[in-house]
Amino acid sequence: MSGMSLNLHLGQRQEQRQILAPRMIQSMEILQLPVMALEERLQQELENNPALELREPTEDDFQDDPGDAPAIDERPDESSTDFNKLDVFERGLDEPLYEDHRPSRSFIDEAGERKMDAMANAPSRPQSLQDYLEEQLAYIEAPEDELELVRYVIAHIDARGYLNAKVPKDTDPLVELARCYTPRQVDREDVEDALMTIQKLDPPGVGARDLKECLLLQIDFETPHREVVTALVEHLHEVLTNRLPLLQKTTGFDLDELQEAISVLKRLNPSPGSKFDSEHIPYVTPDVVVERNEQGDYDVRLVDDWIPEVHIPRSVIEMSRDRSEDPEARKYIKSKIQAASWLMDAIVQRKNTLERVTRAIVRRQRAFLDQGPEFIEPLKMQEIADEVKIHVTTVSRAVDEKWAQTPRGIFPLKRFFGGGTQTASGENVAYETIKNKLIEMIGNEDKSEPLSDEIIVKQFTAIGYPVARRTVTKYRKMLSIPSSRERRDWSLPAK
Asked: Measured between alpha carbons, how far is 248 from 250 in angstroms, rounded to an integer?
């Protein structure tokens, strides 16, 4: 003990911590959901929470009588200040929002029935590319063991329609597929025969190992300018970069033949399996509608037709108060009532916040709505946060993945935000305006001598928009506009 020293120190330390209450976390999650995701979330809650029901205009609706509402949460109402308290939204919490207890048998049965009804009404799975390919095997006469190998290779066709064996680089995928096939011993030639069978199926080009093979598989005897198109597949880089004089020299075909063949080549499908994913492309559903009224101002309303109107029925409240009920069942019911109450509060808060944010955006972007996107003003989220008196992260979540239907079209709310620069006269101009001017300049250029980025910079300077060359190049690439050489029409004589 003589060599050891025990030193106890008693001190005070002051520190600040931000503790995120479950109610606040749920409010932020609900705020961030677009309208269709919120509708889906509510449907899930209706299935999982027996204390939550679709609202019907009956006398049993306890919310019609505020004095009859249960005292579920004794803490002060935080719904109006939850967003302002949050600077950083911590994701991936270790503990659930609510603690569930063992429910009674009747609650389990009711929840099960609702879930079965939801499953019965769910849409069927759309046909996949693999399903479509396997259906066509019914029309191929071949031994069953060969067809089984074809099905095995079909399982390695990806969503684009390409063979995807997920093998290391410089490894022959056919050799690897043969090695991993377990029903019987096969070699590379067997797998290649199976792949050739797939490549004869619809859609044309399916089963290719790379882009060139995919395009060549789509060229047949009926393809116009078949010889020239086949030659161009071997020179895709020159085609993509519009190097027609070089293609004339390397292929020996004249300019007219090359241009007609390129038109045919562009009609080939580089992703033959893509049409099977078309059903999964979501359509845009606006979250807010901005309409011009008779006075010339703009009204903002939320699109809530998709959101089910829910409530906590009186019978559930009375059950939670009935002391003759099993204590564990009452505890479970109360937790579900609290979860339902918090959810409804979060939905109301989402509506209020989204409306206030959108109205502030509309006030700042009046020129955009009156005259068009080219008149958009530079706007930062912090400016809207200051006006609405909420935190900037709340603005970010409020506009995230939300769309607004306006007299000028449907736009993501994030479209109304962006930086800007000053013109030569000192006027603020949004970067979006510069992009639109760039599109206009290139749209009006002489295709026999397209504008280089340097010339575009000079034209911007001439109209009072001093921009750097790198800015023009960056915006051109963001807008997927090719370089001046790639935009040139070689059939037009140079001036």
From this structure: 6
